[in-house]
């Protein structure tokens, strides 16, 4: 047995020697062939460099060597954690992280300010220079939210058809929003605030917001729900920090100074956004426009999700708008109202992260059902019966956790819609869904004008039986209606 092993080793050494001699002979015959060797189980084996004479000789099959002594990391390697391409390149990894970080900052500055509108609502109602009904004040918020959401599909169309628009919006969005707030600080009538703090600010914020949206989609190819959830969590963070900054200024110096201060704050991070919030590669302005895929209009999946999206948004914003004024109507202090708004926003941040991650790995219809059912229960049973600070605190925590991250489901919805429309981009689909969410505030404004025809009483006992009863019932019933639509669609096998 040992003799056989020794003979096998000797035969292996002889074969290796013959290969070495062949390698040397080839090198002598073809000096310019630049033949090298590569090890395979410690046995030399000849390989040739691409383009060398030996590699192109007929009848000779010699493996090609890697011509790069220190190959650069591939730019198309996928990051296993984030799913972004370019994960192997440290510079691209840094750029990828900074894109997500700056997008989160944009979300915090723009949406955090919008979701802190309850503070301005109380201030406007108290200022002598601003004479308006409460529903007119609410229209400022409705206009801002409606324009920010409703313009989503418009901007995504422009970004796709005319790439230069993406660059312009990425650079000019925050300054335009800041100009809107500066003009609002000089306004005195309701319609002026609606045009400036509502429409002007909303358009500028949408320019910046959807350009950041597109950059996130460009950098993150997998786990997109978690990436968007991280970005959307910024609105909750901003909703906590901004009231702590704006609240004291509003109370001590009024809305004029507060709006001017926040206009300056919006301009400050613009140079950093120019540097870091960028796509992987800017598309040339002379590039031909990309075609748009409209096949989603024939998809039942799209219409189900868009319908549920509109229903949810119609009732979602009412608690955020009125929880602070509701607290004061119960006899609570202004700071307690601010703390309720901040708690609602921070819980919405955690909700965005959690629901965004779940949308990557779980069944999307089940997530929608769970979120909207819990939203309805929290409004009807907790807010409707709330009569003190403890009850309201429980409500805003639960409501923020179950409803605050609904938009993080968009990536999962877009993924399912793309099964019917494989050539459709995620950003285009998510822009369509965002526009649908913009319909909700319009319905909300109609409901506000219908259900809230008089100013609230000085004090109330609980939600039911107060001027807020209509809001509570409407917000709660929209959640139940959304659950019914999704359950029907699952039963009919539309989704």
TrEMBL record:
- Tell me where it resides: Membrane
The record's family statement is: Belongs to the major facilitator superfamily. Monocarboxylate porter (TC 2.A.1.13) family.
Q: Which PANTHER family match?
A: MFS MONOCARBOXYLATE TRANSPORTER (PTHR11360:SF287), MONOCARBOXYLATE TRANSPORTER (PTHR11360)
User: By its UniProt entry, which InterPro entries does this protein fall under?
Assistant: MFS, MFS_trans_sf, Proton-linked_MCT
Q: Which UniProt keywords apply?
A: Membrane, Transmembrane, Transmembrane helix
* Primary location: membrane
The membrane topology of this protein is: Multi-pass membrane protein
Q: Which GO terms describe its molecular function?
A: transmembrane transporter activity
- Residue segments, region Disordered: 59-89
Tell me what this protein is called. Major facilitator superfamily (MFS) profile domain-containing protein
The organism is: Coleophoma crateriformis
Example GO CC term: the record gives: membrane
What is any Pfam family matched here? MFS_1
For this UniProt entry, which segments traverse the membrane? Answer: 97-117, 137-159, 164-184, 190-213, 225-246, 258-277, 367-386, 392-410, 431-452, 472-491
């Amino acid at each position: 047995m040992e003799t056989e092993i020794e003979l096998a080793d000797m035969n292996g050494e002889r074969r290796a020697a013959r290969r070495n001699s062949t390698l040397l002979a080839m090198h002598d015959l073809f000096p310019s062939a630049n033949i090298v060797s590569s090890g395979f189980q410690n046995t030399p084996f000849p390989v040739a460099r691409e383009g060398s004479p030996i590699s192109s000789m007929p009848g000779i099959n010699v493996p090609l060597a890697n011509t790069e002594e220190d190959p650069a990391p591939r730019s198309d390697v996928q990051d296993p954690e984030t799913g972004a391409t370019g994960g192997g390149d440290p510079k691209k990894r840094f750029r990828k992280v900074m894109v997500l970080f700056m997008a989160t900052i944009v979300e915090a500055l723009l949406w955090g300010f919008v979701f802190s509108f309850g503070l301005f609502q109380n201030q406007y109602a108290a200022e002598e220079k601003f004479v308006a009904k409460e529903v007119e004040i609410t229209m400022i918020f409705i206009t801002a939210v409606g324009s920010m959401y409703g313009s989503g599909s418009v901007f995504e169309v422009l970004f796709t058809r005319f790439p230069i628009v993406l660059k312009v919006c990425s650079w000019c969005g925050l300054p335009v929003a800041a100009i809107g707030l500066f003009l609002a600080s000089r306004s005195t009538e309701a319609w002026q605030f609606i045009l400036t703090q509502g429409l002007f600010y909303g358009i500028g914020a949408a320019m910046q917001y959807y350009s950041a949206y597109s950059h996130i989609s460009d950098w993150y190819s997998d786990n997109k729900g978690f990436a968007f959830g991280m970005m959307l969590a910024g609105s909750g963070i901003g909703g906590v920090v901004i009231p702590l900054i704006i609240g004291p200024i509003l109370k001590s110096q009024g809305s004029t100074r507060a709006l001017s201060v926040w206009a300056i704050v919006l301009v400050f991070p613009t140079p950093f956004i120019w540097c870091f919030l960028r796509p992987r590669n800017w598309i040339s302005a002379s590039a031909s426009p990309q075609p748009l895929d409209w096949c989603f209009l024939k998809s039942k999946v799209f219409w189900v999700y868009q319908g549920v999206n509109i229903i949810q948004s119609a009732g979602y914003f009412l608690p955020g708008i009125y929880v602070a004024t509701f607290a004061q109507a119960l006899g609570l202090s202004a700071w307690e109202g601010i703390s309720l708004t901040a708690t609602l926003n921070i819980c919405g941040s955690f909700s965005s992260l959690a629901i965004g991650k779940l949308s990557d790995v779980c069944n999307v219809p089940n997530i929608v059902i769970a979120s909207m059912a819990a939203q309805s229960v929290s409004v009807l049973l907790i807010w409707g019966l709330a009569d003190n600070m403890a009850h309201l605190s429980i409500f805003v925590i639960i409501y923020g956790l179950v409803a605050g991250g609904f938009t993080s489901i968009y990536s999962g919805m877009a993924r399912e819609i793309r099964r019917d429309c494989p050539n459709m981009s995620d950003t285009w689909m998510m822009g369509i869904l965002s526009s649908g969410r913009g319909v909700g505030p319009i319905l909300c404004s109609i409901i506000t004008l219908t259900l809230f025809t008089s100013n609230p009483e000085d004090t109330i006992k609980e939600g039911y039986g107060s001027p807020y009863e209509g809001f509570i019932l409407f917000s709660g019933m929209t959640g139940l209606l959304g659950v019914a639509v999704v359950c029907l669609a699952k039963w009919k096998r539309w989704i």
